[in-house]
Specification:
The complex is a heterodimer of chains A (about 270) and B (about 280). Chain A has one domain. Helix content of chain A is about 80%, strand content about 0%. In chain A, α2 packs parallel to α6 and α7 packs parallel to α12. The radius of gyration of chain A is 20 Å and the shape is globular. Chain B has 13 helices and 2 strands, in the order ααααααααααααββα. In chain B, a hairpin with a 5-residue loop joins β1 and β2. Chain B starts with a helix and ends with a helix. Chain B has a two-stranded antiparallel ribbon. Chain B is extended, with a radius of gyration of 25 Å. Among the domains of chain B are: about 100 residues, Serine Threonine Protein Phosphatase 5, Tetratricopeptide repeat (Alpha Horseshoe), CATH 1.25.40; about 60 residues, no CATH class. Chain B is mainly α and about 280 residues long. Classes of the chains: A mainly alpha (about 270), B mainly alpha (about 280). The interface between A and B is medium-sized, with 36 and 28 residues.
């Protein structure tokens, strides 16, 4: 399994797509230096927003380009037979691929955090008086939870990867789940309001009540707004949200492994 | 070789043609947009859901939209209508839903609504919302206190809010002394100068800075005249009747600038005011 993880990681970091995305993220980081000057007081917050958005966007783009092709490519190029002919179970294949992907993301997030960190240091030195609420720890907090989100999202990509052979269909499903996961908490909050009570039929309410347990609550990993103002969450919350992400990702991966066990590869 | 040369000439000609077309389309499109400016703001609940992972940065862009809109109006010296101020308030509401902790939103809104629109109660309401989300930020009660003192002439409430601001551990020590002096220095120019200077020192927005700067010049010149009047009274045991008398007797070198366009008037108690009441002509309308 570790060998498979290593191969996946090497394949990922050698990809030209990854470096294209890095360049794009660098461009967004550069924009933070330009755009921060348009604001009046909370320049630290604006610089934070741009830099964390660059990382988030890069994470999503890598998921949409590298990750969705992961299993599809193996099936397409028939390399999967070569892998599975070795003493490796299908479950190990799924987990090995997934861990390899996480290693690629870990590498990408480390590089991007470092680069965006340099841009923030520069801006902080230029406008020291306007970085009152900025906190490095809060920046790392936002990056960490964005990584947890990516971890969950990639587990979903692996699941759709074993269900469908088309990487495009996988992408469509994953984007749908991502949008649903990002907005589900807003929908639930709206329905709990008085004016939301009559907005939808009881049948739709029933569907939403079921969907909220199926779809990951990505909003739970979005600490960007509060982190931008230097606010940190407690250790209890830290473990709670991390635990939720890890358990959800494991659940989805086990489901993917189960489907993959029974899947006809010919 | 010939073909390459031909291609290069073609590219150069197209580049020039493109530059001309770009300039024309840019101006034409801006003109068309100006004719049918809708000034809509997407409902905050929709923006929040649609912003996905990018709430913070979308809040930044929405606020920029408001800053550019008002900046453009001020620069072109167009009078800002009631509907346009309402548009600004809608932008602010949408941005605060995306990021209720963003100081610039409140700062810009209150700066514009007080100095620009004279909508003091709206500004206080926005600042009160800001206080709910940012109870530890001394700047919000400071600004509310300033509005009560300076615009609404309610020194008691002004002192109350400055005192509230001064209780915050991050608040500069000067706030405590400002709040205690507030009631005593009613209508005192020196005191107002100190308050505005503090705000000007941290201000980066050119629009708000110009408001502060203009008022500061007016107050400093009024203070200069009051000091000269005091000297006159000490020397001649009476107050001067007009500014010309002061000028003739060399108590002042020249008539100080009144940036709001009014004339200086001397009251019998030695105070100096202006016929403009330090208000912009457009604001008075």
């Amino acid at each position: 399994m570790m060998a498979l993880m290593r191969v996946t990681f090497l394949e990922g970091v050698r990809s030209r797509i990854l470096y294209g995305i890095f360049l794009f993220a660098l461009f967004v980081v550069f924009l933070s230096i330009v755009f921060a000057n348009f604001f009046m007081q909370d320049l630290g917050k604006v610089a934070f927003d741009f830099n964390i958005s660059a990382i988030t966007l890069a994470g999503l783009l890598i998921s949409a380009s590298l990750s969705v092709n992961l299993i599809a490519k193996d099936l397409d190029k028939k390399t999967i037979y070569f892998v599975l002919s070795r003493p490796i179970s299908r479950m190990q294949y799924i987990f090995g691929k997934y861990l390899g992907l996480l290693a690629v993301f870990l590498f990408a997030y480390l590089v991007l955090t470092l680069v965006s960190g340099l841009a923030l240091v520069l801006l902080k030195n230029l406008h020291a008086n306007y970085f009152d609420s900025f906190s490095w720890l809060a920046y790392l907090q936002a990056v960490y939870f964005d990584f947890i989100k990516i971890m969950v999202l990639n587990a979903i990509i692996v699941l759709f990867g074993v269900i469908t052979t088309s990487s495009f269909v996988n992408l469509l499903f994953t984007v749908s789940i991502y949008i649903m996961g990002q907005s589900i908490s807003d929908v639930i909050n709206f329905l709990s309001l008085e004016r939301g009570q009559d907005a939808v039929t009881p049948a739709i309410k029933g569907v939403i009540a079921g969907v909220k347990y199926l779809v990951p609550n990505f909003e739970a990993f979005d600490f960007k707004v509060i982190s931008a103002h230097g606010q940190l969450i407690g250790w209890g919350d830290f473990f709670l949200f991390t635990g939720y992400g890890v358990v959800y990702a494991l659940l989805v991966l086990c489901l993917a492994a189960l489907i993959f066990q029974r899947r006809e590869l010919l | 070789m010939k073909r390459v040369l031909l291609l290069l000439v073609g590219i150069a000609a197209l580049a020039v043609f493109h530059a001309v077309l770009y300039g024309q389309t840019f101006e034409r499109k801006s003109g068309l947009d100006e004719q049918v400016r809708v000034n809509y703001v997407l409902p905050a609940s929709f923006t929040r859901a649609a912003a996905l992972d990018f709430k913070g940065v979308i809040a930044d862009f929405q606020l920029l939209q408001g800053i550019f809109f008002i900046g453009d109006k001020i620069e072109s010296q167009n009078r800002i209508t009631e509907a346009e101020w309402n548009y600004l308030v809608r932008i602010i509401t949408a941005v605060t839903r995306l990021d209720p902790y963003f100081f610039d939103t409140y700062h810009f809104a209150t700066g514009m609504l007080t100095w620009g629109a004279g909508r003091y109660q709206d500004a206080i309401n926005i600042l009160e919302t800001a206080r709910q989300y940012n109870p530890d930020d001394y700047r919000f009660p400071y600004h509310i206190g300033f509005i009560y003192f300076y615009f609404l002439h309610d020194n008691q409430k002004g002192a109350q809010y400055l005192e509230l601001a001064s209780r915050n551990p991050d608040a500069p020590p000067i706030l405590a002394s400002l709040s205690s002096r507030l009631a005593y220095y009613k209508g005192n120019y020196q005191f107002s100068i100190e308050l505005i200077q503090r705000m000007l020192d941290r201000e980066r927005s050119p629009e708000i800075r110009s408001y502060y700067q203009k008022r500061l010049t007016a107050l400093e010149n009024a203070l200069l005249l009051e000091k000269a009047v005091k000297q006159y009274k000490e020397d001649l045991q009476q107050f001067p009747e007009s500014i010309d008398v002061m000028l003739k007797q060399n108590y002042i070198d020249k008539i100080p600038l009144e940036p709001y366009g009014g004339d200086w008037i001397f009251l019998k108690n030695g105070r100096v005011y202006s016929t403009s009441k330090f208000a912009n002509a457009s604001q008075e309308k």
